[in-house]
């Protein structure tokens, strides 16, 4: 991992702000209850090295998630080295852009070296779920690995049965931008809260608890006053 980092000064930077914000929302809402959070890794633009015989070959997904590996390692991951980690990503999401759309969709020539992104995900890493999202027309393509090949699904959402978590399109505000976003939902079909939403929910719960405590205190004081008015000392009860 430390010999094979993700930094590459020769590669261009992120194409736009969406490629920065969308992975953040995916990571914040990927909270499968079936796996302890400390065994869930999510990453964006982190190199995946997949071939120990060609250790400089890598692919860099826009976002991916791996389960049953440590969420953090000492010093932080500089890359994801498949033959050291022991597990492939469970799901990969690519955000389509003009420079990469053909490779993302598996339309480039196959059998070359290094292999295409599609070949690596399908044949080498064997990623079970592969998702493509076109932010221009808000279209979603979902591929499942079936008998060693990707098959496009007709469903408009992805449901991962083994994790009891799903991925769909949500229209709302994130990073002060109102638009269609990819985000994860739970087994009841409810959108899993983002970090900002979790903070707001906790604040709301705390405020509600404080209001209930204040109401109970006022009721107790009112009752004590009524008892005093009829000659009963409330402290003697």
From TrEMBL:
Annotated Putative restriction endonuclease domain residues: 8-155
Keyword Membrane: no
Keywords assigned: Coiled coil
Source species, domain of life: Bacteria
Coiled-coil parts of chain: 198-226
Gene3D superfamilies the UniProt entry points to: tt1808, chain A (3.90.1570.10)
Pfam families the record matches: Uma2
Record flagged with keyword Protein biosynthesis: no
InterPro entries registered for this protein in UniProt: Nuclease_put_TT1808, Restrct_endonuc-II-like, Uma2
Protein name: Putative restriction endonuclease domain-containing protein
Organism: Gloeobacter kilaueensis (strain ATCC BAA-2537 / CCAP 1431/1 / ULC 316 / JS1)
């Amino acid at each position: 991992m430390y010999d094979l980092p993700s930094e590459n000064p020769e590669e261009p930077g992120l194409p736009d702000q969406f490629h920065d914000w969308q992975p953040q929302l995916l990571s914040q809402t990927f909270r499968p209850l079936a796996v302890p959070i400390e065994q869930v890794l999510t990453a964006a633009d982190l190199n995946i090295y997949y071939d120990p015989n060609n250790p400089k070959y890598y692919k860099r997904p826009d976002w991916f998630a791996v389960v049953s590996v440590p969420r953090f390692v000492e010093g932080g991951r500089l890359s994801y080295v498949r033959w050291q980690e022991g597990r492939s990503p469970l799901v990969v999401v690519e955000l389509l852009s003009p420079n990469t759309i053909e490779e993302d969709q598996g339309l480039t020539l196959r059998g070359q070296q290094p292999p295409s992104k599609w070949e690596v995900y399908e044949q080498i890493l064997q990623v079970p779920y592969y998702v493509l999202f076109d932010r221009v027309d808000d279209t979603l393509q979902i591929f499942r690995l079936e008998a060693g090949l990707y098959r496009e699904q007709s469903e408009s959402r992805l449901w991962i049965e083994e994790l009891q978590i799903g991925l769909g399109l949500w229209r709302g505000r994130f990073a002060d931008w109102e638009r269609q976003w990819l985000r994860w939902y739970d087994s009841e079909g409810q959108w899993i809260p983002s970090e900002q939403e979790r903070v707001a929910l906790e604040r709301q719960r705390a405020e509600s608890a404080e209001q209930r405590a204040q109401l109970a205190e006022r009721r107790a004081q009112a009752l004590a006053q009524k008892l005093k008015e009829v000659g009963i000392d409330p402290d003697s009860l």
